[in-house]
Amino acid sequence: MELVLFVFLPDDYSVMSLLLDMAIDRYIINKLQSCTCQPMKHNLLRLFLIRVEKAWHEEEALKSAL
């Protein structure tokens, strides 16, 4: 049996960046749900909030550019 791997490489960098950001966010959320160490959970939550704020600022910048 032969395994064939297809890799999706979009021409638009922003699409690839968006997919990577979503994967990182899912990873952080999964770790938050499974983490039992309070200091680590606190740091993951801070990281996630920073990412949300960054995305919000990027969205606002795009809105104002239009």
Structure characterization notes:
It is a single chain. The chain has 2 helices and no strands. It is an all-alpha fold. The protein has a domain of 32 residues. Helix 1 runs antiparallel to helix 2. The chain is elongated. The model has no long low-confidence stretch (mean pLDDT 82).
Number of strands: 0
- Total DSSP helices: 2
Low-confidence stretches: none
Question: What characteristic shape results from the CA principal axes?
Answer: elongated
Helix content: over 70%
Structural class: mainly alpha
N- to C-terminal distance: 51 Å
Beta-strand proportion = under 5%
Mean pLDDT level: 82
Q: For the CA atoms, what is the radius of gyration? A: 16 Å
Largest sheet: none
Protein traits:
single chain; 66 residues; mainly alpha; 2 helices; elongated
Topology:
Layout: H1 13-34, H2 38-65
Helix pairs in contact: 1-2
